[in-house]
């Protein structure tokens, strides 16, 4: 028999293709053991793929078609009508692929699963079989699953399922993939941002829009389109809430919820930038945030928003600007006490300290007296517990701004005018027991001795330092005594009182020197280097001893002679 001509081959192939377009898929698929090539699936994209479907289980197997016959190669030379006919065949096969995915969904009765859909056994069976069917092109399988889900549920329900599944570790990976497929589907359908907003029924959410599970998917779609989701969402919220006050209040509340904290913070930043553009003052923002209506100012979560805005206005002058606004709403007494309470809270401590300093400077500018400050802070009512009062720190800030070097002296003067010596002594002793007030109490003790003209020797005995012997360096009272002696001898830089007492305690200058230069020397808050300097000056200026000669003596073998020579130089 003669070989068929090229025209005959082409005509024959065209007839086969035309028949395939009309034959049901079940007929085309035939037996699963057949090696005959079947029609091409749409989901195979640019690769020639053969699909076999087992109707009972609705599972698909995608197989590469490696053998290209002469007829298949000749297909490339077909005219446009023939190519269009082939595309119709391809579309029909694709439709059947999707139908198989849909039917399996129905067979497993997945539409009846109302909660935790992705975790249900039926859903896992469905996704496993569909994924296997599209193993060469998994992204097409994901698109098919999304199409089925959308055919059975509204988009907002599908989005809710996906969002819920993303919170579960076992289903998160699949949920991420289906979310991406959903976004691609919308993009392919040229859905606008507004259209998707409505598809997800976000336009119907009356309250707590930021808590809607579908919102994150909408934001992801907006971002996919290359737009700013936060800006668009803020515009939507601004239109809904009508006033700056209402919108600001909602955002402040949303920041307190873990699920909405981040997005609320971003939206709030947009709002603050808008306020800056509109020229809103610190006072304007204070009213918008309704801080003027709240007596518990520092407990109001909106305070942090206000502080952030004022710092954007002028970071260097923010404390002064905030104080000016607060001063218009609260009396000195009320504001001072609110600040004191706020300093005890780690969340507001930093802001409160800045406001405290601004208020103290304002008092000084106004020429406010110590008596007036005492009354504002309520310290007149503290009695013997005054040194334990939280308000005392504000008073000390006031004295520091007046005259920092004399702050303890100023405090002592104020206390002495209010308490007799017995009460004052008791207050100081009580304060010595607390680590938070010990340093202040030590300073006040020195001021009390100075007031009574107590000598260095008397103070030494009052502190019972003569009983310490060689353990004197580790006594907590030594530091108090040295500080007091420094006040007594402030005009004599070569005073030898401290060194002489220490040398007596250790049995001589060389024994004291060995201890001071020992690497194992221990003290209780006393600077050893300062004691070394004191002894050096005593040798050089009070006793007329040349340290270089001293270092040659046998008794000095354990000392660092070079250190002394270095000081002399």
UniProtKB/TrEMBL annotation:
Identify the InterPro entries for this entry.
PexRD54_WY, RXLR
Annotated RxLR effector PexRD54 WY domain residues: 271-310
Signal peptide start and end residues: 1-27
Q: Which domain of life is it from?
A: Eukaryota
Name its cellular compartments: Host cell; Secreted
| Keyword Secreted in record | yes
Q: What UniProt keywords are attached to this protein's entry?
A: Secreted, Signal, Virulence
Query: Per its UniProt record, what Pfam families does this chain match?
Result: PexRD54_WY (PF22748), RXLR (PF16810)
Q: Tell me the protein family, please.
A: Belongs to the RxLR effector family.
Name of the protein this chain belongs to: Unnamed protein product
